[in-house]
Amino acid sequence: MKKEKITNGMILAIAVNLVYTKGIGVTQGIIARQVGNDMWIATALSILQGIILVWVTISIIRRIPQYNIIEQTEVMLGSLIAKLVAIVIFLFFVGAYATVLITYVYHIKDYFSPDSSILLPVVVGLIVGIYGTYKGIEVVSRFAIMGLMSILLFNVLIILGSLKDFDIKEILPIFTNGLGKNIEASIHYNTDWAMVTMVAAILYPLVNDQKTWFKSGVTGIVFGGLTVLIWPILETGVLSPEVTGQYIVSCMQLARAAEIGDFIHRYEMIMVALFSISLYVQIMVILYTASLTVAPVFKLKDIRPLIIPIGIILSAFGYWIIFNNVRAMTFLTYYWPPIAMSIAVGLPVLIFILGFFFKEKLQQTKANLPQEEQNI
Amino acid sequence: MHRKVVIFSMILIFISTSLLGCTSKTEIYDLAMVMLVGIDKGEKNPNNIMVTVQIALPANARGSTGSPTGTGMGDPIWTSTGEGKSIFEAIRNIGRYSSRRLFWAHNHAIVISEEYARDIGITDVIDFFTRNNQLRMRTWVVVTPKKAKNLVATKTGLEVIPGQSLNKLFRYNEIIAEAPRTDMRILTAAYMSESSHPVLAKVDIKNRGVSADRPGEFGSTPQVELSGSAVFNRAKMVGWLDSKESRGLLCFIEGFNSAVIALKCPSDRSKPASVELKDSKFKVTPYYKNGKITFTIESTTYAELVELGCSTNYENPRILADLEEQLSAEMKSNIEGVIKKAQKDYKIDFLKLGETFNNRYPSEWKELRDEWKEIFPTIDITIKVDANVISPALLENPTRDVKD
Amino acid sequence: MQDKINDLLQLPIERSLKKNIEIIEQIIENNVDIVKREFVFHGPIDISGVVFYTDGLVNVQLIDSEILKPLMIYSSQIREQDNTQVTHFLAENIKNHLILNTAVKFVTKISDALENILSGDTLVLLDFCDQGFIASTKGWDARSVGEAETETVVRGPRDGFTESIRTNTALVRRRIRDPYLRMEAMKIGEKSKTDVHIAYVKGIVKDGIVNEVRERLQKIKIDLVLESGYIEELIRDAPNSPFSTIQSTERPDKVAAALYEGRVAIFVDNTPFVLLVPTFFWQYIQASDDYYSSFWTGSFFRLIRYIAFLISLTLPSLYVLIVSFHQEMIPTTLALTIAAGRDVSPFPALIEALVMEISFELIREAGLRIPKPIGQTVSIIGSLVIGQAAVQAGFVSPSILIIVAITGISSFAIPNYATSFALRLVRFPLLIASGTLGLMGFGAVFVMITIHVLSLRSFGEPYTAPLFPLKPSDQKDIIIRAPWWKMQKRPQMVDDNPNRSESGIKPEPPKANSGESDTDKKSNDNKNNDNNKNNQSNEKGRKVKQKRTWRK
Which of C271-275, C299-303, C548-552 has the lowest mean pLDDT? Predict the structure, then answer.
């Protein structure tokens, strides 16, 4: 298969799309339950942590720009451990897909068709995801640019619709919970960044023009962070932190409370219509990267045969998780953050450190690569 | 490879179409659009809940082809009640009579009767109506001293659908400024807030209307009036505020930009004069010294003279100065009235003073938070009102009778 | 039979005229439109000759005056000059001295000779000569250059392409007097031998694209090419897609503009539709008017067309979606109105929408097919039956009528017929999905359509460029139309020579010093020298300043 190439702008768009949908709703609800009106501070703190995470990941990839994190592990530690790493990352994506499904299904089902079967959105998401993934990452990234535009439009709309009810009193005594508790809460948001770093660790070798990698990575995080940051601020100011914490999908609650005049009195549909684009981007990107991750385990060059089985595995686990709301929220609040953080932070940091021990091996491999490929 | 995808998606599409029966498709003509809902105590059993719904009959409200020209044949609304042990059961019992499925998304207001609010409390109402995804957060929540079901069944206002009349009553009541505009969002936030308590608007049925057929019998048709407010301690209602106190309350919770205040004429106290508030600033500042909490309330108001009922020889500056004095006294009495009610009668902080204190003294608040209920009635509140009547509107000279 | 004629075609032209005539007559048999005219050439010796031409494709007067007349009457000219030499240089001499036609060439094969006859040229055969002359005598009745009917403009040139490829290339050439404009000829169609020209501007177009076009055209093996649609379908990147990745146009000005954006034009004979590649999706929504009227107008109408595009794609689906799933989205007053109208309608919204959409398509199709004299009938029946009567009879609700009408009007606002057709086509799956699955179905199908469009390429270029992937520098001519003095660069796909115009061409009025208008001052200058003196220093400053801005 011809290696597809994507641009820095595209990876930026993917990053924003990955964090946005879950970051504004489900995650904010969890954070609000922990730190109340400091939720925006926790979010902001987590942006800083996200920058560090992405910096580490990009530093790893830059050692051999053509190899992703699994291939680099193979160079350092041999193929067996590389396969192990691949499976661990794949497990991460299984969990990540479940969190995406939580966002996707609870938006669609709870607010639009409460009578319908929960399987339906899962299946529909899978069909669309597989279709998009088959078209390749380049198409998905173009789609991500579209997602980015709709996110911006949506942010503007929600600001217009809810700013008149904004009450600074709800936000004001900042830092009531202290730094420690805020950082603790920011971990929930870090799981969203974890998705970005893991996707970056797999996808960055496909990004051309490696000189601007750092710039695009950090811009992606900051940009994504800022688009999300508007939400906790609005949610606290308009809904009050107590109400935000009450709901599973708190961004929908903000949308329920927003209106422009008497004629756009419901935002939910506009909201879901606009950000379903980025939900589908998430599904496609995770499906693609998960397939790319396990491809070396089965020694496959082309990931396409893997997409359907992997899609079914991811959806099946996701379906099991979301079938029960309580199970989903327990998974999201208590089990997912430690798992995600240990994989998404532990693994890159471990490989980052190991890289110093195996410096020669890496440099040797880099030098042996065909010259023209290096120039890309 | 491509064929596989096609076959696979065919199977998936087949599965999903076989699931279609589960989708929540409802045609618009199968919906009974609820415009107003009333919550009463049960009639069969006082522990029960009685729900009354006002449902729009589109064909009668709009004419049979949907053109807004005619008003159709019969009543534009259909009202029905149901009783049950819970709200949900009561609503389900309405289904016994309703040939269409109840649809809540266009509900304009939730009317709670006083006895329900006092005896049972509104927790259930808040929970039920926010848990349901159909309801919007902009639904007004009001309390009535009468039976809610009577109010829901009353035809009122200029709109075809009474529910819409009530909605517009709220949206355009800025000029009156006598009732808080509390909707579900504000109610939930106030209910869940750690210091403040909810205040809802009061609606009442007054025999004010007159039928065009019988102009002689004034007051024959009942109309809904929006004035005053109901104070809650957490879930339970504790008492009323009259229209003047409600105006004072508005300063604290939402502010008002426009209101008409009736004063007296400078030269002849028996004659009327009115000013219209144009712009007002309201600032509540907490102070904490030596363990003693004080609040200073500064209000700056700008008003315009809109009516002067006496023929006077006074020049404008003098008139305005006199009105300013009256206005500030009036404003002060409004604010004082509501503070007195809050501190002395109900001993409940529904004025958001706790939150204001928290904003300025977050660390002190943490210590005082639990005792706030006891501290609040004892707080000293200083009120400074600065009223300015800045314009005599169009007239440079007052309307004067020069024959004297 | 076929084989026999094929064998005959491969034969060379013989020295014996009789034999040649025999062969040709065997091939054409009793074709009435191929005319044979025998004559005698009074050369050094009397030589018999023959002229073949296709009746109707030639200008008979040309044959008379340029071929037959010189050969028969002025043949003595040759005799005087060259009375000793006979046949050897005869052919060359005749070409050089006798035949007045502007384009004469020799053929040596029967097949070539016949091909030329059939394309409207005249074949002259002489005894003792193993070559035939082909004289260009093409002249048939063709439609004259008329208005481009499918792409009308309010402001802009009115001329449109015709069925004659030569006229078409001339129409473009008249607009571009640039030696870099290249036209390459080829013939496609085993039987039809249709002329196809590739036009491009060297130095502006990427070489890769021209090669790609050439290769794809050469690959075509088909017997007939009757319209550029044949070619279009055979060289597309995504043959299965409903979206057209090749633009066709009737307007020479569009072609001229496209050539200077680095695109390639494919002219096909016998059709007024010229193909332009590569094509980007947004170009379907742009009209020539945009560039000729003020940039404010152009941008505004372009925005309107984008809205029309969205409406024609999504409006019926959104209506069905909202009315049968998400009634909470409708403002209460409107909800009551729609509900009142729907009260009497017996069908679910989806069925209603499908039926109305299909009847609209019926009216459109019938209006297109119906003979012009009775064309009025369709619009009367359409507006009466599908309009008022259907509502009054209680068959459909009034709201769906409005929706279908707006959708129909919007689809006509899209300048390109192929695209508006593609939109109509993808509207139906969207409609069915939103009618059965609600917002989720709408979202899923919409995303799949979008992904499909995003994955398309037109001759290697992403179909949705320059928006996806985003090229910030090319945004001046996509959603809006920037003024010409702002669009100084050509689109990025251009090979080199990216500058369209020099910078600083934004017109500005000369800076006047005083309140009086500029022309006033000029006349004042002559009359009033004193006044001028005071202003002189200022005047100088202005001139210098102005020069600088113009040179920049």
Answer: C548-552
Rounded alpha-carbon distances, angstroms, from residue C210 to C204, C217, C272, C273: 11, 11, 22, 19
Highest mean pLDDT pick, B118-122, C95-99, C494-498 = B118-122
Residues of B with Cβ-Cβ distance to C341 under 8 angstroms: 62, 65-66
- Whether C455 sits inside 8 A of A136 (CB atoms) is yes
Whether A262 and chain B come into contact, CB under 8 Å, resolves to yes
Q: Which alpha helices (DSSP H) does C235-374 contain, by range?
A: 252-259, 288-292, 295-324, 332-343, 349-369
Which amino acid, A266? R
Minimum-distance CB partner of B164 among C328, C332, C348: C332
Give the closest of A125, A266, A276 to C329, CB-based.
A266
Q: Is residue A3 domain-resident?
A: no
Percent of chain C with pLDDT over 70: 89
Work out the minimum CA distance from A88 to partner chain B, whole angstroms: 28
Question: What range does the domain containing A247 cover?
Answer: 18-375
Q: What is the amino acid identity at position B62? A: R
Q: Chains near A, with 3+ CB pairs < 8 A?
A: B, C
Which band of pLDDT confidence, cut at 50, 70 and 90, is reported for residue C498? confident
Long-range Cβ pairs for the range B219-224 (8 Å, 24+) = B221/B155, B222/B154, B222/B156, B223/B154, B223/B156, B223/B157, B224/B151, B224/B154, B224/B156, B224/B157, B224/B162, B224/B165, B224/B166, B224/B169
Structural domains in chain B, sorted by start: 28-241 (no CATH), 250-404 (3.30.300.210)
- Taking CA–CA distances from B29, the nearest residue in chain C reads C343
Asked if the C-beta of A184 comes within 8 angstroms of chain C's C-beta atoms, the answer is: no
Is the pLDDT at A316 greater than 50? The verdict is yes
What span, in angstroms and rounded, lies between the C-alpha atoms of C199 and C258?
11
Residues of C in contact with B28 (CB under 8 A): 323-324, 327, 335, 338-339, 342, 349
pLDDT tens for each residue of C407-454: 988 988 888 888 888 888 888 889 988 888 888 888 899 999 999 999
How far apart (Å, rounded) are the C-alpha atoms in residues C233 and C248? 12
Question: What ipTM does the predicted assembly reach?
Answer: 0.90
Q: Identify whether A2 is part of a domain.
A: no
State the average pLDDT over residues A203-217: 81
A12 found inside a domain: no
Q: How far apart are CA A355 and CA A348, in angstroms?
A: 10
Q: List all chains that touch chain B, counting a touch as 3 or more CB pairs closer than 8 Å.
A: A, C
The closest of B196, B184, B282 to B231, measured between CA atoms, is: B196
Count of domains observed in chain A? 1
Tokens linked to A63: 């050692």
User: Closest Cα of chain A to B271: distance in Å?
Assistant: 40
Q: What is the DSSP string of B225-294?
A: EEEEEEEEETTEEEEEE-HHHHHHHHHHHT--S-EEEEEE-SS-TTSEEEEEEEEEEEEEEEEEETTEEE
The pairing of strands B77-84 and B49-56 is antiparallel
Residue C317 distance to chain B (closest CA, Å): 14
What is the reported pLDDT for C86? 52
- Is B58 within 8 Å of C336 when comparing Cβ atoms? yes
Q: Tally the C-alpha atoms within 13 A of residue A150's C-alpha that lie toward its C-beta.
A: 23
Residue A8 within a domain: no
Distance between CA atoms of residues B195 and B379, nearest Å: 15
Q: State whether C437 and A124 contact (CB < 8 Å).
A: yes
Instruction: With CB atoms and an 8 Å threshold, state whether C342 touches B17.
Output: no
> Residue B322: how many CB atoms within 10 A of its CB?
19
CATH of residue A342's domain is 1.20.1740.10
Å between C248 CA and nearest CA of chain A: 26
Write the pLDDT tens digit of every residue in B284-325: 888 888 878 888 888 888 888 888 888 777 777 888 888 888
